[in-house]
């Protein structure tokens, strides 16, 4: 986090609403996507994002280390998403193309992405969360450990187990290639 961002956090902690919005603006898309992956519905993801913003604004004075604002916000979105799901408030599914996850218009590619997306959505929360943070949000293992408040070893284990469960669910050649390439990156 830069000095400017830390300064914005301090201003926001002192009640400056514009500073708070300036902090959230570059994170908005990333946080929305995180919520969307949990609920798979555009309107629900927006509701979760808005709820997370309110919680963050109310809790901002309690944030002790401004350099962890992004990590803190991500954790709030994850917690709001889990709460939303637990309360059974989610509704109809919206396909992931709604926010440009798909890169190629090929029909086969779309089916592969939808299969992967559905398999990911069906994973246990701890595996889904680490895989989303690692591969859709490009967080490092260390950053994920901070967000999840877990040891790095646990994060690595959950990534590996999550990838194994994806492989079991999909049992297709394209997922084997993808998982293999991901495992080589770690």
Automatic annotation (TrEMBL):
Tell me which residues make up the RNA polymerase sigma factor 70 region 4 type domain.
115-166
Which residues does the UniProt record annotate as the domain RNA polymerase sigma-70 region? 24-89
Q: Which GO terms describe its biological process?
A: DNA-templated transcription initiation
Q: What molecular function terms (GO) are annotated for this protein?
A: DNA binding; sigma factor activity
Q: Does the keyword Transcription regulation apply?
A: yes
Q: Among its keywords, does the record have DNA-binding?
A: no
Q: What is the similarity comment for this entry?
A: Belongs to the sigma-70 factor family. ECF subfamily.
What's the protein name?
Sigma-70 family RNA polymerase sigma factor
Q: What is the lineage of its organism?
A: Bacteria, Bacillati, Bacillota, Bacilli, Bacillales
- Pfam families annotated for this entry? Sigma70_r2, Sigma70_r4_2
InterPro entries, sorted? RNA_pol_sigma-70-like, RNA_pol_sigma-70_dom, RNA_pol_sigma70_r2, RNA_pol_sigma70_r4_t2, RNA_pol_sigma_r2, RNA_pol_sigma_r3/r4-like, WH-like_DNA-bd_sf
Q: Which SUPFAM superfamilies match?
A: Sigma2 domain of RNA polymerase sigma factors, Sigma3 and sigma4 domains of RNA polymerase sigma factors
Native organism: Metasolibacillus meyeri
Tell me where on the tree of life, at the top rank, the source sits: Bacteria
Q: Which UniProt keywords apply?
A: Sigma factor, Transcription, Transcription regulation
């Amino acid at each position: 986090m830069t000095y400017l961002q830390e300064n914005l956090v301090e201003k926001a902690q002192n009640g400056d609403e514009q500073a708070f919005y300036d902090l959230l603006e570059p994170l908005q898309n990333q946080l929305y996507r995180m919520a969307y992956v949990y609920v798979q519905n555009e309107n629900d993801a927006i509701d979760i994002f808005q709820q997370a913003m309110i919680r963050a604004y109310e809790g901002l004075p309690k944030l002790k280390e401004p350099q962890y604002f992004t990590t803190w916000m991500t954790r709030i979105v994850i917690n709001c998403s889990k709460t939303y799901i637990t309360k059974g408030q989610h509704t109809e599914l919206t396909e992931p193309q709604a926010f440009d996850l798909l890169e190629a218009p090929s029909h086969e590619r779309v089916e592969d992405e939808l299969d992967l997306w559905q398999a990911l959505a069906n994973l246990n929360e701890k595996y889904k969360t680490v895989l989303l943070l690692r591969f859709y949000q490009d967080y490092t293992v260390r950053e994920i450990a901070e967000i999840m408040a877990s040891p790095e070893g646990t994060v690595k284990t959950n990534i590996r187990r999550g990838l194994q469960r994806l492989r079991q669910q999909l049992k297709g050649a394209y997922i084997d290639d993808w998982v293999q390439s991901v495992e080589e990156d770690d």
